[in-house]
Design brief:
single chain; 335 residues; alpha+beta; Ubiquitin-like (UB roll); Threonyl-tRNA Synthetase, Chain A, domain 2; 3 domains; five-stranded mixed sheet; four-stranded antiparallel sheet; 11 helices; 12 strands; globular; disordered N terminus; disordered C terminus
Length: 335
């Protein structure tokens, strides 16, 4: 029934008419979000007969075995059975000691489960998921922060590299030579903080190549990237969603936007690329999980470093992005 209601919603929304005039950022975001939700409901309803799986939880407060639903229950659902502390602090899951797993991705078989958090003795895996999520969310901020008179087209973001000093998103803007002032960067930072304070659950979903093309039909960069991504992922495209914002990423990402604490958009730098059309700008930022406290001086040093140009992958024509986007289905082995 839920699926049918979403179908009616989409049929009653004349997106083709909207596209003939200049579609607003909000309208496009709503269209993409509705398509994501529709497909998520369809996939859930297609599960059929519910099978039970055993999930052997390893970690505090006590090791235990949970009986969960195959292809429905997620690590987040497991955490809810284990206690509020784990619900609030868990950032990403580890399945069978080797595969990183998004907290809201359904478990596909019986397994051993660990819940990773920011204050672990070795938090590198969590930090990478956090950094990837920050890039993803920075794209949402870029889309939402400009008036409709400015054309904003998200291109991509490189694989997370915490050592680079900043997370980034590369965005095409109809601004020929924009050099943001301090107050403009401050405004972007405030918008970022406000978005995260809305406590958006970060959802994940794999869709077919054709469905991904439908979702991103108004973004020529994503449309061009999708075939290569699908070709390297058994015809599927991994998507993530926070609020109305939908984007492509290999994942995993963290559980919720409320995990972010201090956030600063540190710079926006015009890049030299061979991408046709308007200039590509590199949005850069730095952030800390809310559970990590740092004094003002130390955080200031991190901000200063993050203002320098991040030299991660620069967008180019015919670029293979499958390494960055990849898949959350293929095991991401921990070494």
């Amino acid at each position: 029934m839920i699926y049918k209601r979403f179908l009616v919603l989409l049929k009653n929304t004349n997106y083709s008419r909207v596209t003939k005039r200049n579609i607003t950022f909000t309208e496009e975001s709503e269209r993409q979000s509705n398509l994501f939700r529709l497909e998520k409901v369809r996939q859930k309803e297609s599960v059929g007969r519910i099978e039970k799986i055993e999930v052997q939880y390893a970690g505090p407060p006590n090791e235990t075995t949970l009986i969960m639903n195959k292809n429905i229950s997620t690590p987040y659902d497991c955490a809810k059975h284990l206690g509020e502390m784990l619900v609030n602090r868990s950032a990403v899951a580890l399945v069978n000691g080797e595969t990183l797993w998004h907290m809201h991705r359904p478990l596909v078989d019986s397994c051993k489960l660990e819940l990773l958090h920011y204050k672990m003795a070795q938090p590198s895996l969590v930090n990478k998921a956090f950094w990837r999520t920050c890039s993803f969310l920075l794209g949402a901020v870029a889309v939402n922060s400009f008036k409709d008179q400015v054309k904003v087209c998200l291109h991509s973001f490189p694989s997370p590299n915490v050592r680079s000093g900043s997370f980034v998103y590369d965005v095409q803007l109809s601004l020929k030579d924009w050099k943001p002032e301090k107050n403009e960067l401050k405004t972007l930072s405030i918008e970022f903080i406000k978005f995260c304070q809305q406590n958006h659950q970060i959802e994940c979903l794999e869709v077919s190549e054709d469905y991904a093309q439908l979702i991103f039909k108004n973004n020529p960069h994503k449309s061009k990237q999708i075939p290569d991504i699908a070709a390297n992922n058994n015809g599927k495209v991994p998507l993530f969603k926070a609020g109305l914002h939908v984007d492509i990423s290999r994942g995993p990402m963290i559980t919720n936007t409320n995990h972010l604490g201090r956030i600063t958009v540190t710079n926006v730098i015009k890049l030299e690329t061979d991408i046709p059309g308007d200039p590509i700008y590199r949005f850069q930022g730095v952030a800390l999980p809310h559970s990590i406290i740092l004094n003002h001086f130390a955080y200031g040093l991190i901000e200063e470093r993050a203002r320098k140009l991040n030299t991660g992958r620069i967008p180019a024509i015919n670029q293979d992005l499958s390494i960055d986007y990849g898949s959350f289905v293929k095991p991401q082995v921990v070494v």
